[in-house]
Amino acid sequence: MKKLLLSLMTILLPVGANAFSGEVEIDGIYYNITTKGKVAEVIAHPNKYTGTVNIPEYITYDEIECCVTSINNNSFKGCENLTSVTIPNSVTSIGESLFAGCNELCSISIGNGVTSIGKNAFSSCYSLTNIVIPDSVTFIGEDAFRLCLSLTSVIILGDLKNIEKGTFSFCSALTSVIIPESVSSIEENAFYCCNALASITIPRSVTSIGGSAFGGCYGLTSVHISDLEAWCKIDFAYGSNPLFYAHHLYLNGEEIKDLVIPSSVTSMGQNTGDYAFKDCSGLTSIIIPNSVTYIGGAAFNNCSNLTLISIGNSVETIYQAFANCPELTDVYCYAENVPKTVDVAFDGSFIEYATLHVPASAIESYKTSVPWSSFGTIVTLDGSEPVISQCAAPTIFYEDGRLKFVSATEGAVCHYSITDSDVRTGTEQDVTLSLTYHITAYATKDGYTDSDVSEATLCWLGYEPRQQGITTDMGDVKMESFADLRTKPVIITNYGGTLTINGTEDGTEVRVYDLNGKAVGSATSHGGEAHVTSNLSSGSVAIVQLGSRSVKVRLR
Fold it and tell me: Which residues pair with 311 in a beta bridge?
């Protein structure tokens, strides 16, 4: 039986002999129909729909067949007793909030003509358990299935471009989702708080994943991919990587433990790749190819079982990529130019107990560059500790009124320290000057270890003033003034218990005593130099007597 609802205005309008446009109810479903166009649109029920609603492809009114092509927005919104709906192939879209708040809706069949599902279309359909989205659908709006608390399975057959914001958020019973290869982005909060979701397959077409897309998915145990290169190039927003919960990444069904990055990948980060393998506890080793020049922040953070990293020779920049990898034992870096690296690149990875393997030509540069210098052991790539030359200790001598330092290592820089025991303050009325300097010096050069320390004592020997040939009118001999006192510098050096005295006049008797006054050695100067070997131990003090002058020297 057909029931016709007509407004007074509709009755009065001149519509032609058989033409009709208005609202009708046919078999419990309300429509707006236009018989001239032979189309019908499902509209809201004045008292809300209940039970099962099967929308037909065609209805007949006044012997005119009309095609049901659309469903008006909000037509089923809040129909709390609606349990099942069938949408025919003739309908092309599911409008915004169409089934929102249909608490008892547990079954929905979507026809193959539907191309889009609007925003909030099925939000808060608490009883909906599964849904198959046909291949005709190319768009699903934001929050379309938000709070579908009983939804366990979603099969998306259409060529979707995006999984929009919050599409499946708070679907706390969702355990399985098949994302089509056409999807290029998974937007923020797309699967937020899908607590029961155990695994997710990310197709190679995905290039970006928005913030918290999988936030709160505590049940995730595995992430499945089919293309490692595509995974490395995904633009991950902070907190978007499902590995944060899953910890295990599978490539074509096999878990990745020994990761070899494809040579086609040129960067890990810098808009793609950040966080790509963050929290992947299944990883034990990583090989990054020569093609990679940039490793971005957090790319491998929290890989709790990672023990070995191999970094190709082209890498130029590394940010906080390997932090909190506590089992790390070996890092191989083939770059001869030390990569620009933030101080916290290996923060929390206990690299002070790990070994760094680098090119022999660059080992000193790594040893002096943070954070590389913090590795407990730094060796060449073949595992050997390089033999590093030591600078030659400086020779200390006095010439042409200047104290001079020379190392036999070409290009070495000599560093010296001079102390003078005559520099003092006090209150005594009578001060004895020693005219003695104590000198220490060592040499340095890049690529060399510092030299041993050379020590020397510089003292000044005075000779008596001349007293002949000059007389006064009184016949007295005239003494030269103090300014005429002749002095000569003498350098005393010692090594291994042997003292060398340079600058003495030939024939000068040199004697060496210990602090108790016991003679331990002597020599006569020849060619301006004397050598005295004693049995005094290193660190002891010797007294060197040069003619009438005595000088204390500490032996090396």
Answer: 288, 333
For 198, the 3-state DSSP assignment is coil
- Name the superfamily (CATH) of residues 257-387: Ribonuclease Inhibitor (3.80.10.10)
Beta bridge partners of 464: none
Handedness of CA 88, 89, 92, 93 (dihedral sign): positive
Place of tokens 């010692």: 494
Closest CA to 390 of 369, 408, 368, 371: 408
Which residues in 285-434 belong to E strands, given as ranges?
285-288, 294-295, 308-311, 317-318, 330-333, 340-341, 355-358, 377-380, 395-399, 402-406, 413-420
Instruction: Round to whole Å and give the CA distance between 495 and 184.
Output: 76
Residue whose entry in the numeric block shows the structure tokens 């208005």? 22
Query: Phi and psi of 413, rounded to 5°?
Result: -105, 130
Q: How far apart are CA 530 and CA 506, in angstroms?
A: 9
Smallest CA-to-CA distance from 246 within 217, 210, 277, 221 is with: 221
Mind listing the pLDDT tens digit of every residue in the chain (556 residues)? 334 443 333 433 444 446 888 999 999 999 999 989 999 999 999 999 999 999 999 999 989 999 999 999 899 999 999 999 999 999 999 999 999 999 999 999 999 999 999 999 999 999 999 999 999 999 999 999 999 999 998 999 989 999 999 999 999 999 888 889 999 999 999 999 999 999 999 999 999 999 999 999 999 999 999 999 999 999 999 889 999 999 999 999 999 999 999 988 888 765 558 888 999 999 999 999 999 999 988 889 999 999 999 999 999 999 989 999 999 999 999 999 999 999 999 999 999 999 999 999 999 899 999 999 999 999 999 877 666 688 999 999 888 888 999 999 999 999 999 998 788 888 888 887 778 888 999 999 987 889 999 889 988 876 554 444 444 454 454 444 434 445 788 888 887 678 888 888 888 888 988 888 888 889 888 888 888 888 888 778 888 888 777 888 877 7
Q: Is 221 exposed, middle or buried (0-12, 13-18, 19+ CB in 10 A)?
A: exposed
Structure tokens at 490: 């003498």
Collapsing DSSP to helix, strand or coil, 534 comes out as: coil
Query: Strands, E, within 479-556: which ranges?
Result: 486-495, 498-502, 509-513, 519-524, 529-533, 541-546, 549-554
Q: How far is CA 251 from CA 167, 225, 229, in A?
A: 26, 5, 11
Closest CA to 259 of 309, 329, 304: 309
CA separation for the pair 464, 292 (Å, rounded): 79
- Could you give the residue range(s) of every CATH 3.80.10.10 domain in the chain? 257-387
